[in-house]
Automatic annotation (TrEMBL), chain A:
Domain ABC transporter, residue spans: 8-239
Protein name: ABC transporter ATP-binding protein
Signal peptide start-end: none
Organism: Bradyrhizobium australiense
Family matches, as InterPro entries: AAA+_ATPase, ABC_SmlMolc_Importer, ABC_transporter-like_ATP-bd, ABC_transporter-like_CS, Mo/tungstate-bd_C_term_dom, P-loop_NTPase, Transp-assoc_OB_typ2
PROSITE patterns, sorted: ABC_TRANSPORTER_1, ABC_TRANSPORTER_2
Record PANTHER family: SPERMIDINE/PUTRESCINE IMPORT ATP-BINDING PROTEIN POTA, SPERMIDINE_PUTRESCINE IMPORT ATP-BINDING PROTEIN POTA
Key words, A-Z: ATP-binding, Nucleotide-binding, Transport
Family: Belongs to the ABC transporter superfamily.
TrEMBL record, chain B:
Organism from which the protein derives: Bradyrhizobium australiense
Family named by the database record: Belongs to the binding-protein-dependent transport system permease family. CysTW subfamily.
Principal location listed in the UniProt entry: membrane
Xref: InterPro entries: Aspartic_peptidase_AS, MetI-like, MetI-like_sf
Gene3D superfamilies: MetI-like
Membrane topology: Multi-pass membrane protein
Protein name: ABC transporter permease
Any single biological process term in GO: transmembrane transport
UniProt keyword annotation of Transferase present: no
CC annotations in GO: plasma membrane
Length: 368, 286
């Protein structure tokens, strides 16, 4: 059996533990073969439950799971040819690294010689050869993760399911192991489904990001689409990097709308083909924090079509490659501008300065 | 002595206050008594002799007693292990409700709510010639004559021991099983392990320390007991301890002491064999 045909289709997937509330509530999703897919959401949003249902550790209350064109409901994990990497790894504490990785082959009845040959190859791949005879308790977090990965991959699954694989590691290692995961995914040439609550991890790794809330998919698509074009307020807030505020439509022009707010007026937004709005509608807007330009209030008005809102600097945080400037531009909402480091230090602002925050109409987006 | 040393001694004092008078001194008394001669009326004559050991070790009776005791020990160990393991497994892996698990656990301790004597007497109406078991079997027509070996026999001794000691298996095995991460079991299933594989390759090896601890309890209690054997066998069987109980009864202290020392040595060997299979220190400090 070769890997391949690891495309996954979830149709109307529901899971309820108490028969009243759905933990997973009608999820429809297609994950292509050999994709790296990340489920992103806060804890309790149902992402791990979906993973466990794909793995076959839990049965859906309703809906279908199709892997490689075959309905896998009721099949054991091995028959599905999925493998799972558990949160905090769940390594067998009484077995050495070698026997941990060899476990799946052992229960398949392979002889010791046969399985150790396969395991030695795998250990080389994930650079564990020198640690072969250690027990999991004597490994570092990163090493444990590599063992877990090797143990899952030894069965040549067509889908690898990873439950918060990086949450047990410290920050520095997390970035390192993130690359390792991506490398392994490319090398193995199989579908990875990865569950995380860290947006940075999701957008750094995934071909497809699936943002979830309360058992439902809020948005799914390529990482860049989800980050740069969030569909609604929840997605925009969860992925971050956006200033979000609401307002009422005052005018509808041919190429832009004018929106006002209790505290601010004259906010211009480009017309979006997929959003029909009329005068008087209340809508949510998002503007990327790095699309905002700050200028001193005295330096005159910006060009036509741009929005310019005054605001006082509340705080300034140096972030290395950029500077985070917090303003009270929109009262009651967080308003932050990311200013490139070099630009900022040409003419540094101070806390308390009154600035104009400007952006062109096309940069603001209407949220659902 | 330096100040630091004084503190070190101070720390171990409470333990020493218990260990020295209640453990070390009695052991020494027994050891000394075992190499002395007796005047036959309970008095000890301070003359060194190894005759007591020679007597004990060369007596055919010692051999019979040990083989009887070992038989009871092995049977009791086997049954308590199987029952205790299954009960613990059920409580840990099949009872999802914690409150239910705790109540079931308490039910396991029911035998201890009455005294040992009452518990053993209670077997008489159950196992006796006209007891419940026999009348039930007669009633269903499975047997024509009442089975007499149920009571006052080796079977009765083993039944009483198992009844009394299974909890000593359940508790440590439950304890080590409860520490098994459920995800580890899931990971095994994910790798394609069958129920039997999970039991054989995951649960049993990971419960090893509990099994070892429970075995130590059961083996040392059975080997050091004479009361259950005496009552439940109706005097038909004897055990190692019952023999030196008799010796004490006829004031043969040195020979009883020598038997006691021998039993202690045998038990130490048995326990160290059990401990070789598992690193208890690591398991406990984990």
């Amino acid at each position: 059996m070769r890997p391949g045909h690891g495309d996954i289709e979830l149709a109307g997937l529901c899971k309820s533990y108490d028969g009243i509330t759905n933990v997973v509530d009608g999820v429809n999703l297609k994950i292509p073969d050999r994709a790296y897919c990340c489920f992103l959401g806060p804890s309790g949003c149902g992402k791990t439950t979906i993973l466990r249902m794909i793995a076959g550790h839990e049965d859906p209350t309703a809906g279908e799971i199709v892997i490689g064109g075959e309905n896998v409901l009721g099949l054991a994990p091995v028959e599905r040819r999925t493998a799972m990497m558990f949160q905090s790894y769940a390594l067998f504490p009484h077995l050495t690294v070698r026997d941990n990785i060899a476990f799946a082959l052992r229960v398949r009845g392979q002889s010791r010689l046969e399985r150790y040959k396969a395991v030695d190859l795998m250990m080389e791949k994930v650079r564990l050869t020198e640690l072969a005879d250690r027990l999991p308790a004597n490994l570092s977090g990163g090493q444990q993760q590599r063992v877990a990965l090797a143990r899952a991959a030894i069965t040549e699954p067509r889908v690898l399911l990873l439950d918060e694989p990086l949450s047990a590691l410290d920050e520095q290692l997390r970035v390192q192991m993130r690359q390792e995961l991506r490398r392994m995914q490319r090398e193995l040439g199989i579908t990875f489904v990865h569950v995380t609550h860290t947006q940075l991890e999701a957008i750094a790794l995934a071909d497809i990001v699936v943002v979830m809330e309360k058992g439902k998919i809020k948005q799914s698509g390529p990482a860049r689409d989800v980050y740069a074009y969030p569909r609604d307020r929840y997605v925009a807030e969860f992925l971050g990097g956006q200033n979000i505020f609401s307002g009422k439509v005052e005018q509808v022009g041919s190429d832009h709308l004018v929106i006002s707010q209790p505290h601010r007026t004259g906010i211009h937004v480009g017309v979006q083909a997929d959003r029909r709005v009329g005068i008087g509608d209340r809508i949510d807007l998002a503007v990327r924090r790095d699309d905002i330009e700050l200028m001193r209030a005295t330096s005159g008005e910006p060009g036509g079509g741009a929005t310019a809102l005054p605001g006082r600097v509340l705080a300034i945080e140096y972030q290395g490659s950029f500077v985070k400037v917090m303003l009270d531009t929109i009262p009651d909402e967080e308003f932050i501008a990311y200013v490139p480091e070099r630009t900022f230090f040409q003419d540094p602002f101070n806390v308390g300065d009154v600035l104009l925050a400007t952006w062109s109409a096309g940069r603001a987006r209407i949220l659902a | 002595m330096s100040r630091k040393n004084w503190f070190a001694w101070l720390y171990v004092t409470p333990l020493m206050l218990v260990l020295v008078p209640f453990f070390l001194v009695p052991i020494l008394v027994v050891l000394v008594a075992s190499v002395l001669e007796t005047d036959g009326f309970g008095g000890l004559i301070p003359t060194f002799t190894l005759a007591n050991y020679v007597d004990v070790l060369t007596s055919a009776q010692t051999f019979h007693l040990y083989s009887a005791t070992l038989k009871f020990t092995t049977l009791t160990w086997l049954f308590t292990l199987v029952i205790g393991f299954l009960v613990a497994y059920f409580l840990v892996f099949h009872v999802k409700n914690q409150l239910l698990a705790i109540s079931l656990f308490l039910i396991c301790t029911v035998p201890f709510w009455t005294s040992n004597i009452i518990r053993m007497i209670s077997w008489i109406p159950l196992l006796g010639k006209e007891g419940l078991v026999n009348s039930a079997l007669l009633g269903t027509g499975l047997i024509r004559e009442p089975i007499e070996v149920l009571l006052y026999s080796g079977i009765a001794v083993v039944i009483a021991y198992v009844h009394q000691l299974t909890i000593f298996m359940v508790v440590p095995i439950f304890n080590s099983m409860a520490r098994i991460d459920k995800r580890v079991v899931e990971a095994a299933v994910d790798s394609g392990a069958s129920r039997l594989d999970v039991m054989r390759l995951i649960i049993i090896p990971m419960s090893k320390s509990g099994i070892a601890l429970g075995s130590i309890f059961v083996v040392s209690i059975v080997m050091g007991d004479f009361f259950v054997v005496k009552v439940m066998s109706g005097g038909g069987s004897a055990s190692v301890v019952s023999a030196f109980y008799e010796n004490v009864g006829v004031l043969q202290y040195p020979i009883a002491a020598a038997s006691a020392v021998l039993l202690t040595v045998v038990l130490i060997v048995a326990i160290s064999l059990i401990l070789r299979t598992v690193n208890i220190r690591r398991e406990i400090t984990q």
